[in-house]
Amino acid sequence: MKSISRQFSNQQFFSFVRKEFYHVMRDRKTLLILFGMPVAQILIFGFALTNEVKNTRIVVSDYANDPASRRITERMAASNYFDIERRLVSHREIESAFKEGTIKLALIFPAQFNESLSHGNSAQIQLITDASDPNTANTLVNYASSIIRDYQAELNMLHSVPYSIIPEVRMLYNPQLKGAHSFVPGVMSLILMLVCVMMTAISIVKEKETGTMEILLVSPFKPMLVIVSKTIPYLILSLINVVSILLLSVFLLDVPVNGSILLLFAESTLYITACLSLGIFISIKTATQQAAMTISLMGMLLPTVMFSGFMFPIENMPVPLQVLSNIVPAKWYYIIVKSIMIKGTGLALLWKETLILMAMAIFLLTISLKSFKTRLE
Amino acid sequence: MKEKPDNNQQLTIQVEELSKHFSHFVAVDKITFDVQKGEIFGFLGANGAGKTTAIRMLCGLSAPTSGKARIAGFDVYRQAEQIKKNIGYMSQKFSLYEDLTVTENIHFFGGIYGLTDKQLKSKTRQLIGDLGLEREAKKLVSSLPLGWKQKLSFSVAILHDPQIVFLDEPTGGVDPVTRRQFWNLIYEAAERGITVFVTTHYMDEAEYCKRISIMVDGKIKALDTPSNLKQQFNVPDMDAVFYQIARGAQRGDKNPAA
Predict the structure, then answer these.
(1) Is the pLDDT of residue A69 over 90?
(2) B257 occurs within a structural domain
(3) Which GO terms describe its molecular function (chain B) (predicted)?
């Protein structure tokens, strides 16, 4: 690295990066796709999510039938999220109703609900959902819980001793609720993969195809810097995409970033580095833009969709595929982003995933720079 | 073949028994020649004769298998970086960026050869003036006709005043008038002391060179001034010389103008 930094000239480097930006900015169609795609994907996923929770059929199984339970049920009915059917049902009936798809949520008030609330200051409600569609299940539970919390807050205003109603939530079929709100981290890992791997690979291969790579290799400009400066616009583009995805998810979809934004960006940079390195590697191994694109799409995007855990739960896969999924960088990035955004996890709990991602980035960067030939053959 | 200078300073390209093997295939087979400073040296051969491989070795794009070569006084094995600073190169394929304007291309290539902003400014103005491209300076290169692109490409290749410029079939697909204008640029460069090493398919262009070498199957089969070669083979033009020499070729197609 010493000889590089010695001969590194700021001005040369600056000329090169500026030229790369011209390339990116002049190709308006591609630029539109690159910036529009994450927005479109987030909106599509977001709308698919919000549309489903209007007028959902739920069953209220009220074993208490006292003022408190009736009050909560009325509030549920008053919201436009739920169509309520009051009926005493057994667990078996609930399960069969889920299987038929006639209801999405069951709300069960135990007997003496009001009594335990007023005497013991604490009562339980059971919420049972069909979590085979985790996004819907999560949203329904969130809405139901917030209505219950509102009622609780109202009660507490009237009484000095705080009451607490504890919703006991049971997510059937998918207890860890994999996939809930996960489309934001999922879209992030996909988009970054796409922008970094495919666009970088294509832009380097394009120079080979048009013959300008020869000119660059004959110039005193360091070949390594050719590669580095070609990746810079895509690094910046990717970070802008991260920002726009996060803005959309926080302000439009109410998917908050519970953890540290700084950590999120640091981890994203790590993932972007891994993806850019992959892009460079593909560009070195291919001779045409078409080949680079095919390999990026089939060889990179497909495994990312399959094995990141975004679309298909990895836990449900056969063991060999589960093992295979470990070599997909997107899987680790997806886990990290999901933890930071949704659970608000810090680095203390994510150091293992971070180390894996970092090792991947370093490994990919090393092999791609090593395999880059400074001479044509 | 006369006046060979004793002074080695005058030789900008010295090649001795230079070879390139690709596994069992011998692309370039022990070629030996010298080029003097300011000379226009034609490097002829049928397709597949090994011209491009040879030129790539001289530019440092490809490592030789054996033999010696010094370019601008630097060794091709050990001093590739110094060689790169002292040569210009224009490849067979058109070698400017189509989606950049004329000025942006000049600035970019000047920039990666380390020209300062001040140098870039004056060089750009001069180059655009010389080529009469004032009105096109802010246009994308893709909108220029091929002939202008080639002239611009050549001017950009010698923007940093290299000692030697390597031109690999620079006039492919260009009309005769533009080719003539292109050669005027080459003559101007040679007068400024830039050595021109040019490969071509066009035999009329071979006549413009001071000396030419003809490569057949990786070997140099003839090397002299065009007039000496015509005399030696007792034919009226370079076309006939080329045919006489190249017809024994084992590889490539034998039609030089193809």
Answers:
(1) no
(2) no
(3) ATP binding; ATP hydrolysis activity
For A63-131, the three-class secondary structure string (H helix, E strand, C coil) is CCCCHHHHHHHHHHHHCCCEEEEECCCCHHHHHHHHHHCCCCEEEEECCCHHHHHHHHCEEEEEEEEEC
Which chain A residues are Cβ-neighbours of B113 within 8 angstroms?
219-220
Q: Is the pLDDT of residue B46 over 50?
A: yes
Please give the domain boundaries of chain A with CATH numbers for all domains: 2-48+181-371 (no CATH), 52-172 (3.40.1710.10)
**The residue to which tokens 């993806």 are assigned:** A275
Interface contact B111-A16, CB threshold 8 A: yes
Angle of the A261-285 helix axis to the A200-210 helix axis, nearest 10: 30
Question: Quick one: three-class SS letters along chain A?
Answer: CHHHHHHCCHHHHHHHHHHHHHHHHHCHHHHHHHHHHHHHHHHHHHHHHHHCCCCEEEEEEECCCCHHHHHHHHHHHHCCCEEEEECCCCHHHHHHHHHHCCCCEEEEECCCHHHHHHHHCEEEEEEEEECCCHHHHHHHHHHHHHHHHHHHHHHHHHCCCCCEEEEEEEEECCCCCCCCCCHHHHHHHHHHHHHHHHHHHHHHHHHHHHCHHHHHHHCCCCHHHHHHHHHHHHHHHHHHHHHHHHHHHHHCCCCCCCCCHHHHHHHHHHHHHHHHHHHHHHHHHCCCHHHHHHHHHHHHHHHHHHHCCCCCCHHHCCHHHHHHHCCCHHHHHHHHHHHHHHHCCCHHHHHHHHHHHHHHHHHHHHHHHHHCCCCCC
Q: What is the CATH number of the domain that holds B164?
A: 3.40.50.300
> What is the mean pLDDT of the segment spanning A140-169?
75
| A183-235 confidence digits (pLDDT tens) | 788 888 888 888 888 888 888 899 888 888 888 888 888 777 888 888 888 89
pLDDT tens-place string over residues A310-348? 777 777 788 888 888 898 999 999 989 988 887 778 888
Q: What is the total count of domains within chain B?
A: 1
Contact map slice: B 92-151 vs A, CB within 8 A: 92-100, 104, 107-114, 116-117, 140
Size of interface A-B (CB pairs under 8 A): 86
Residue of chain A with shortest Cα separation from B93: A211
Q: Give the residue numbers spanning the domain of B152.
A: 8-246
pLDDT over threshold 50, residue B4: no
pLDDT, residue A138, reads 78
Q: Is residue B255 part of a domain?
A: no
Q: Which residues does B75 contact at the CB level (< 8 Å), separation at least 6? A: B68, B69
* Cα–Cα distance for residue pair A161/A158, rounded to 1 Å: 9
Which of A9, A218, A229, A376 should we substitute to test contact with B (largest number of B Cβ atoms within 10 Å)? A218
In a domain, B2, yes or no: no
> Does residue B89 lie in a domain region?
yes
